[in-house]
Specification:
Helix content: 25-40%
Largest sheet: 8 strands, parallel, barrel
Bound molecules: flavin mononucleotide
Mean pLDDT: 95
Number of strands: 14
CATH class: Alpha Beta
Number of domains: 1
CATH architecture: Alpha-Beta Barrel
């Protein structure tokens, strides 16, 4: 792995062996100092938010949601970053089965939170070092609240490429400033309900192309929410203020797409992804954390300014991710087998995974007072703990945030820390079926490796669908497997 990374030009520290608790850096607690005093988080594993497209129509968690969350609870990770994206308004849902927190569903969230803590306590003997957040979202451009196949986008501004890619009419008005005031109130109300339900913090989601993230790049939007950095971060500041007003003492975290890129399209000939040609539209003004003259490259100047802003607002928890799974999945979820609405990765997926860690390192160095979770870990597969413990030891990140691995192998953290051994049959191989399911109107889950999903009818349907998306054999992802 180290050699393969080096050949690609990435120099990441990596340990030879998996260390167990208490000698592993991943087993060391973290003290977080924030408004309400100090909080101790028991180890360095975090569970990333992982939506299942399986909530009830009224927004309550279903039996499937519960199963996923309770597996997170007994994973061994001590930081639960948000569970999954939870909409703050009905029209803000990304699909008709997205969770939605409101007066009528709050009791189910409270029950889920209590059961979560109980399951964790039963497995690990204590819960006072467990930190649980709830991720609050408005799906913005990717809203589909009524029908999985009918987009009902709510946009900050017209994006020349995404409008075209997702068939948005130029006549659709961007969300109005008045409407934003209602959205801000809804986030405040959801924060209040999350606090009552027992969550320790809320994540005010600013990633993956959803509304909060889109506002950070609203360069061309007129009025108080667009243009300069001050205006583009106004919504974020108002969301923080609303959450603090409505839920005093509740902590806040922000999951942030730290850099972006030009949306990619699939080459119909060879299935390869390539960024849309924007050479005639430079400087590129439709991405946050991009180099406007070479917009396929990150520029972290504003990302660092945003971290300073968050720090000045007394926000301590930040979770670094990138771009959006809707138009650049290779940056967000590096995978050997791309999702069926995606493309063959334009780079070795290991590059995407390494970039996320390197960027987190650079950001952590500029805001050492903040507690960082880094993303995109699943592609490291068997080597995840070897890298995780080295990166935490050397201060690249505070937490190793696990996404897809949590679906195939939820007790990965416990196995790594308790046994120093992993079960190779349960390691996520980034088959992307957890994304393929939802992209084809089905629930998410690890169809290849979790016996519970393997035997469901959706697993068979997915096999057929994938055959239709076969890629040319000389470009199989197997050619990209790290040695
Ligand atoms: C099925 C699926 C659901 C996801 N749901 C969410 C979500 O609700 N909120 C969020 O911020 N990210 C979500 N993500 C992104 C993950 O949290 C994570 O950033 C991504 O999978 C990369 O990490 P990994 O390499 O460990 O999988 C989801 C990803 C997948 C594959």
């Amino acid at each position: 792995m180290a050699e393969h990374l080096n050949r690609l030009g990435w120099c990441l520290p990596i340990d030879e062996q998996i260390l167990t608790s208490p000698s592993s850096p991943l087993s060391q607690p973290v003290e977080i100092t924030w408004q309400g005093g100090n909080r101790r988080v028991g180890n360095r594993f975090a569970v990333q938010p992982m939506e299942g497209w399986d909530g009830e129509a009224d927004g309550r968690p279903s039996a499937l949601t519960r199963r996923r969350w309770l597996r997170f609870a007994t994973s061994g990770a001590k930081l639960i970053w948000g569970g999954e994206a939870v909409a703050v308004l009905p029209e803000a849902r990304a699909n008709p089965n997205q969770l939605w927190l409101n007066d009528r569903t709050a009791a189910s969230f409270e029950a889920l939170c209590k059961d979560f803590v109980k399951a964790h306590r039963e497995r690990f003997g204590q819960e006072n070092d467990l930190l649980i957040g709830l991720q609050l979202t408005h799906s913005g451009r990717f809203c589909r609240p009524h029908d999985k196949n009918r987009p009902e986008p709510i946009i900050a501004y017209h994006h020349p490429i995404l409008d075209m890619k997702f068939g948005l009419s130029p006549d659709q008005p961007p969300v109005s400033d008045q409407e934003l005031a209602r959205i801000v109130r809804a986030f405040g109300e959801a924060a209040r309900l999350a606090q009552t339900a027992g969550f320790d913090f809320v994540d005010l989601k600013h990633c993956h192309g959803y509304l909060g993230h889109e506002f950070l790049s609203a360069f061309d939007r007129p009025g108080p929410y667009g243009g300069d950095f001050e205006n583009r971060t106004r919504l974020l500041r108002e969301l923080v203020a609303a959450a603090r007003d409505a839920a005093p003492g509740l902590e806040i975290g922000v999951r942030l797409s730290a850099y972006d890129t030009v949306p990619l399209m699939k080459d119909p000939e060879n299935g390869q992804g390539h960024p849309v040609d924007v050479s005639a539209h430079l400087p590129y003004r439709w991405g946050f954390g991009v180099n406007q003259l070479e917009p396929t490259l990150p520029d972290l100047t504003e990302t660092k300014a945003l971290l300073r802003l968050l720090s000045s607002l007394d926000i301590r928890l930040v979770n670094i991710t990138a771009s959006s799974p809707y138009y650049a999945p290779h940056l967000t979820r590096p995978a050997l087998f791309p999702p069926c609405d995606g493309y063959l990765p334009p780079e070795d997926p290991l590059e995407g995974a390494a970039r996320l860690q390197s960027v987190t390192r650079e950001l952590k160095a500029t805001a050492p007072e903040m507690v960082f979770v880094s993303s995109g870990w699943s592609y490291f597969q068997n080597f995840l703990p070897h890298l995780g413990q080295a990166l935490v030891r050397e201060g690249w990140t505070d937490f190793v945030g696990l996404g897809r691995m949590m679906l195939s192998y939820p007790d990965f953290p416990a196995d790594a820390l308790e046994k120093g051994r992993l079960d190779p049959k349960r390691i996520c191989r980034t088959f992307s079926d957890c994304t393929n399911g939802p992209r084809n109107g089905m629930i998410s889950g690890c169809y290849p490796l979790d016996p519970f999903y393997k035997t469901r009818p959706e697993a068979e349907k997915l096999k057929t669908i994938k055959l239709r998306h076969m890629i040319p054999s000389d470009r199989t992802p197997a050619n990209l497997i790290p040695s």
